[in-house]
From TrEMBL:
It comes from Kluyveromyces marxianus (strain DMKU3-1042 / BCC 29191 / NBRC 104275). This is Glutamate pyruvate transaminase. The keyword Transferase applies. Pfam families: Aminotran_1_2 (PF00155). Its cofactor is pyridoxal 5'-phosphate. Gene3D superfamilies: 1.10.287.1970, Aspartate Aminotransferase, domain 1, Type I PLP-dependent aspartate aminotransferase-like (Major domain). The lineage of its organism: Eukaryota, Fungi, Dikarya, Ascomycota, Saccharomycotina. The gene is ALT1. GO terms for biological process: L-alanine catabolic process. InterPro entries: ALAT1/2-like, Aminotransferase_I/II_large, PyrdxlP-dep_Trfase, PyrdxlP-dep_Trfase_major, PyrdxlP-dep_Trfase_small. It comes from the Eukaryota.
Length: 542
């Protein structure tokens, strides 16, 4: 008879094990030289203990960086990199203790975010948007509605609501609303002096960044794919190439020639890539330039198409700053230049493929947070357009309010419309304010020791060259920073001005730059920068 609590020890060919059981649980047991067999009828308490044990094992480990897609870890985006992250920390510190730092606020000159930095939204945009978001207002009596909104805002809202199917909360077609694409095509045709654009070639996107993602994800097939990018460049391109595990092929812009291109160097980059087994698939052109603020001449654009035609390279024209043009400068769209080449040189440029990008984030719109833009495909086959449509379909559709803003951007109030005069006043004010701020900052840099800056022609940025003292370069090395990053870090810590080091955009080895917007209002921050710069050079003077 088993005791109330029995330990059974058994030895078999399978090993040694020990069981402790309650006598009341055992129904039968038998042993042999090879096996020990026990049939157990567990009590309720035993079953509960077993269930508790089986459902609470040692937790599986959390994700580590080893589990993350290595292409994401490789991607870098300096515009929101280490210095902007430090700026956010300082902003939080100021909120808790306003007197804890030698400045009162952070000046975010690191990113082209107009409405964060004083640029007011256009009234016409906001009137139409509010009616789209709350269409019940359109049911109000005419006299009530007209006391709140101008008649052309009301008419545009009704037209857009009809085109989107009655609500901006519903999905649209993946390529974008047909009526809005027709409006974009009309805008491009007018801009390019009658060179016809077709709605089926237009893809509405969630900003120009989404269009870049479409193009690169479609054409990048791995490390054997190369994409030519201008240096300095907008970091979106190198980051996107890292995500797609493809190779950036940098070509340097000529600073001494106001950041123009060098066609001979570009062709050398192409030929060198081919020799190394890398296929140059795309060539990126940012015009007007980011971060340089320069505008390419027609001759420079033509030379790019010469190379594209010769090697079968797709041209990506990032033209999101086409509305930010200063007096005395002229923007020529790449499509217009291509069409003129095709007329003069019959057949030579017929197979050139061009993807042109535009956005509501820049210009006088400044609607960065609304995420709207478009891409025009020029020279692509129907089959390739269908692949773009597949990519767009995976994302369902672009933001519908962003699409509506694209419509407003490319078709603003016209002379005779109720909103026209106010809209023109607001647009002129934005243009004049930006050019005035750019001039002020440029003139300040021009009189400072150790800074060389090209006069801006457009966009939202200056990209000055820094001739840093050797002691400053040594100090940067001690802090494990690039020299221009060290300068930008010190500028932030002493003045609250947040900029982006040139090392985040790429630059000729041995040179140092930074990018700053001229969006912030007023002159106090410029004066603070000038004071800091003089003190910095005195501190580290050789």
């Amino acid at each position: 008879m088993l005791s109330a609590r029995t330990c059974l020890n058994a030895k078999s060919q399978l090993g040694v094990f020990k069981l402790t059981l309650k006598a009341s649980s055992i129904v039968s047991a038998s042993t042999s030289s090879a096996t020990l067999r026990i049939v157990v009828m567990p009590s309720i308490s035993n079953l509960q203990q077993y269930n508790n044990y089986s459902t609470s094992p040692k937790p599986a480990p959390k994700l580590t960086l080893d589990d993350v897609n290595e292409n994401i870890l490789k991607a870098k985006y300096a515009v929101r990199g280490r210095i902007p992250m430090r700026a956010e920390e300082l902003k939080a510190q100021l909120k808790k203790d306003p007197a804890s730092l030698p400045f009162k606020k952070i000046i975010n000159a690191n990113i082209g975010n107009p409405q964060q930095l004083d640029q007011k939204p256009l009234t016409f945009y906001r009137e139409v948007l509010s009616l789209l978001q709350h269409p019940e207002l359109l049911d109000e009596a005419d006299e009530t509605l007209l006391s709140l909104y101008k008649i052309d805002s009301i008419q545009r809202a009704r037209k857009l609501l009809e085109e989107v199917g009655g609500s901006v909360g519903a999905y649209s077609q993946s390529q974008g609303v047909q009526g809005i694409r027709e409006t974009v095509a009309s805008f491009i045709t007018k801009r390019d002096d009658g060179e016809i654009a077709y709605p089926e070639d237009i893809f509405l996107t969630a900003g120009a960044s989404a269009a870049v993602s479409y193009i690169l994800s479609m054409l990048c097939k791995g490390p054997s794919t190369g994409v030519l990018i201008p240096i300095p460049q907008y970091p979106l391109y190198t980051a996107s190439l890292a995500l797609n595990n493809s190779k950036p092929l940098p070509y340097y812009l000529r600073e001494e020639e106001n950041w123009s291109t060098d066609p001979e160097e570009i062709e050398e980059v192409v030929q060198d890539a081919i020799k190394k087994g890398v296929k140059p698939t795309c060539l990126v052109v940012i015009n007007p330039g980011n971060p340089t603020g320069a505008i390419l001449s027609v001759n420079a654009i033509e030379s790019i198409f010469e190379i594209a035609a010769k090697y079968g390279i797709v041209v990506i024209a990032d033209e999101v700053y086409q509305e930010n043009i200063f007096k005395g400068s002229k923007f020529n769209s790449m499509k217009k230049v291509l069409r003129n080449l095709q007329k003069v040189h019959h057949g030579k440029f017929d197979n050139v493929q061009l993807a042109s990008l535009h956005s509501i984030s820049k210009g006088v719109s400044g609607e960065c947070g609304q995420r709207g833009g478009y891409m025009e495909l020029v020279g692509f086959s129907h089959e390739i357009r269908q692949v773009f449509l597949k990519l767009a379909s995976i994302s369902l559709c672009p933001v519908v309010t962003g699409q509506a803003l694209v419509d407003l951007m490319v078709s603003p109030p016209k002379p005779g419309d109720a909103s026209y005069e106010q809209d023109q006043q607001q647009r002129n004010h934005i243009h004049e304010a930006l050019e005035e701020r750019a001039t002020k900052l440029f003139e300040t840099f021009s009189r400072l020791e150790g800074i060389e800056c090209r006069k801006p022609q457009g966009a939202m940025y200056l990209y000055p060259k820094l001739d840093l003292p050797f002691k400053a370069i040594q100090e940067a090395s001690h802090k494990e920073m690039e020299p221009d990053e060290f300068y930008c870090s010190e500028l932030l810590e002493h003045t609250g001005i947040c900029t982006v080091p040139g090392s985040g955009f790429g630059q000729v080895p041995g040179t140092y730059h930074l990018r700053t917007t001229f969006l912030p209002p007023g002159t106090e921050w410029v004066d603070a920068w000038e004071k800091f710069h003089r003190e910095f050079y005195d501190r580290y003077r050789d």
